Amino acid sequence: MRHLLDTKTLSRHDALRILDVAEDMRDTQTREIKKLPTLRGKTVVNLFFEDSTRTRISFEAAAKRLSADVINFSAKGSSVSKGESLQDTAQTLQAMGADAVVIRHGASGAPQTLATSGWISAGVVNAGDGTHEHPTQALLDAFTIRKRRFGADSRGRDLTGVAVTIVGDILHSRVARSNVWLLSTLGADVTLVAPPTLVPQDVSAWPARIRYDLDDALAAGPDAVMMLRIQLERMNAAYFPTEREYSRRWGLDARRVASLPADSIVMHPGPMNRGLEISADAADSPRSTVLEQVANGVSVRMAALYLLLAGERDTTNAEEAAR
């Protein structure tokens, strides 16, 4: 695997390989000593042009637990804020000997540009670009669903027959886009639920059905309900009448959680707007996987970095690395 830029072009084989390696990585995180020597001598740069807490920390933890050297680069307070271009920044990182660059950028397509421009020889991981994709979030979501459904027997399994309902701000959500493509590739049945104003103009090519009534969608008994954050910072128009009205019609509360099948799970990529798209009761219920998603994110990102930087010389699996 040379880069991880999106899930739309990620094959079923490569997706399952990442998830299975993440299982091996997860096993190492229950030990007293969590660190592995796998990427010793490698340098991973976290290049974040947008604010982030959990994603940046998750990638940093993943790289450090694989013994890589980590450089955190924030656009604020750097030469980027003085007008330095992506090309100049990339060439600086190349001169510093970066082996992998984890990039979050406000412009859709920036990671693809970095990976294909020739400015840098490092492997590139997309940590979220504009409203385009966020592949490692989708992978950790799929990992979480698979783990909840199959437990210890999840290695090698896809998500055939699993029904996933994704609810909320589809229009601005790179998480939704990555999940639609990945979950579909893994065999899941995907339904999107949102106000008409928060559905992209043309979703005819998306492998998902669209609904506008949350209660109708929940009546179908999905195995997983993924609530999306309302991205108020990306909104410059009135996409719904009021927050209270949105919460009433499209928010997940205790009543709606109670209507779900007994083994359904509740997901959220975070950060949550409690009381808007999800109530405190729903977020903190035993069905909620929110904290599991955070923990699983480290394992999935360890797997991605491992396959990017060590996979070529060890094409078997990560079991030896995990011992």
Give a topology summary.
Layout (H helix, E strand, L loop, with lengths): L11 H17 L14 E6 L5 H12 L3 E6 L11 H11 L3 E6 L4 H7 L6 E7 L5 H16 L12 E5 L6 H12 L3 E5 L15 E3 L2 H6 L4 E4 L15 H8 L3 H5 L6 E3 L12 H4 L6 H20 L9 H4 L1
Helix pairs in contact: 1-5, 1-11, 2-11, 5-6, 5-11
What does this structure look like?
- Helix 1 (12-28) crosses helix 11 (290-309) and helix 5 crosses helix 11.
- The radius of gyration is 19 Å and the shape is globular.
- It has two domains: 12-133 and 294-322, Aspartate/ornithine carbamoyltransferase (Rossmann fold), CATH 3.40.50.1370; 135-292, 3-Layer(aba) Sandwich (Rossmann fold).
- The strands form two sheets. Strands 7-6-5-8-9 form a five-stranded parallel beta sheet. Strands 2-1-3-4 form a four-stranded parallel beta sheet, with helices on both faces.
- It is an alpha/beta fold and 323 residues long.
- Strand 1, helix 2 (54-65) and strand 2 form a beta-alpha-beta unit.
- The chain contains twelve helices and nine strands.
- It has helices at 12-28, 54-65, 86-96, 110-116, 135-150, 174-185, 214-219, 243-250, 254-258, 280-283, 290-309, 319-322; strands spanning 43-48, 69-74, 100-105, 123-129, 163-167, 189-193, 209-211, 224-227, 265-267.
- The model has no long low-confidence stretch (mean pLDDT 91).
- Helices cover 38% and strands 14% of the residues.
